[in-house]
Design goal:
two-stranded antiparallel ribbon; disordered N terminus; 7 helices; mainly alpha; 2 strands; 65% helix
Length: 112
């Protein structure tokens, strides 16, 4: 999406701090969410998943082939989870992502 509007998709540290306050970034994220996880299809899929939040997130992420971050945001935007759950889940996902990044993968004796 950034390519279509002529902006760089690599964010600086300052841009990351202002990420959610930047109206252009908010617009880009909303358009991207609608392309990847269309609201109508999401709402229909939401009716078919269980009530357990972690299972719901995993199931929807698998169905739409997007990250759990995308699904958590979509759940928040659709008022299926409140702000405290949104913050808790994004914090949990950020922690898992950082742990994943920090691991050194060894494949056939090579560190990647």
């Amino acid at each position: 999406m950034h390519l279509f509007i002529g902006t760089n998709e690599i964010l600086t540290d300052e841009e990351i701090n202002n990420y959610f306050r930047d109206p252009l970034e908010v617009f880009v994220n909303k358009v991207t969410a609608e392309i990847l996880v269309p609201r109508g299809v999401f709402d229909a899929a939401l009716k078919t998943v269980g009530k357990n939040i972690d299972e719901k997130i995993q199931s929807l992420a698998d169905k739409f082939k997007v990250s759990k971050f995308v699904i958590v945001r979509r759940l928040y935007d659709s008022n299926d989870i409140d702000h405290s759950v949104y913050l808790s889940k994004t914090e949990e996902l950020n922690k898992l992502f950082k742990e994943f990044q920090g691991r050194k993968k060894i494949i056939r004796g090579w560190k990647l």
